[in-house]
Fold:
Amino acid sequence: MISAIRELRIASGIREFGKYGQLLYQALRSSTEFSTYRKNLFHEFVKVGYESIPIIFLVGIFTGAVMTLQTAYQLDTDLYPSTIIGSIVVQSLIIELAAVISALVLAGKVGARMSTELGTMRVSEQIDALEAMGFNSVSFLVVPRIAAGILMFPILYTTAAVFGVIGGITAGAVDGILPAAEFMEGGRAFFFESDVIFGIIKSFVFGFVITSIACYKGYYAFGGAEGVGNATTRATVLSCIFVLLADFILAALLL
Amino acid sequence: MIEIKNLTKSFGDLLVWRDVSFTIQDGETTAIIGRSGCGKSVLIKHLNALLYPDEGQILIDDQSVFDLSYTELRKIRQRFGILFQGGALFDSISTFENVAFPLRYFTDQTEEEITHNVNEALTVVNLKESGEKSTAELSGGMRKRVGLARAIILKPDYLLYDEPTSGLDPRTSEEINELIVDLADSLDITSIVVTHDMHSVLSISEKVAFLDEQKLSWFGKTEDMQHSDNKNLMDFITASEYQINKQNA
Structure:
């Protein structure tokens, strides 16, 4: 009985993955229909990028500030120079925290919005209406959302990292842990361009993972308001899981 | 002309209907009736290949819709206008923009021409003053009329109505019925109406297809329907008349 249920789940998982791949293939094929999604693309740039800046600002500031306070607490000894705090905070932000924490927050903000929008359009037959008019609904709805995710997440990552450093400097100075100059000196000592490139690659991947899963779950939503709610919940949970999984794989491959 | 040939559809293990065949002549209004859940809406979604059957085919002017490439299919779909049950209006844009939507993407019309054509379509559905309203401000009947204006804006050959009067009061239902008849006459459109409202069927349709027990149970002229020896059809009509009398009482 248990093995039968397990087989059923595996089969359903494979089927879901196949459908997801099919949607991505359709999106890739229809990415050439630029005139269909041009207007929506700029709309999504604003929604994904511009409208996420306030939350990314807060995420960056507080992550950098808390990181600085905790690193100072853990290194409360005379064995290390205080500049090491800046080195650890800056490098951690660039390599890991700015990308991953932003992605997890954006899975809730951007991903949930996308799956809810598409899910509502699906259950209220708006997607059928688009297809019935002769539109390619994947090109019209899915392509601009994924493209905006891929292109905007690196900018949001950079914003989070910059504000993280500012948060770290501010917390260090206000709390009397270390002056801004020492923080920056430590940060510069272990600043490598390759770390920034690694962070940008991560944010590209996270942008793709979050928006494609959200679009997939929303596009195939069914069952009225409850169905849309379920699709949004699954999109958010799956996005978070796959962001963490992708984070691990990228770290294993690229570091 | 639309020829439906031996169409069979199921969702997983659930058979919707089997071996459905009938022909819709140009210029005719055909009603597809049957109990809730018998697959009426599923059937009209096959006409423009929004859904695909398990077996069978649909020929539009001798062209099989299920064998077309996606590009060809999109052209065929533009020959259809469809009024969805809830209107299926895009809620992020105004009423005017909903109606203008197909014109902006599928024609090279200037802004002036678009404004003129949209106002004309809104006038046809008696909503001339509602163009700037958001879709959230529209009542159920208004949403259907806006959906209808959008469906006719590209002057389609075929107009599909999915439960056009469901959820509406008798007066508004009557207005929608009159609109369907007027549009069929004035635009010379072939109309296919999915409904379980017998009052609508009698006032708008020339032919009737009755879906029952997972098959096409009866197909013929509307005037022949009441003399049919199909027991389930007669039961359906009787139950509907009882409902109408109860509403009128």
About this structure: The first helix of chain A runs from residue 2 to 29.
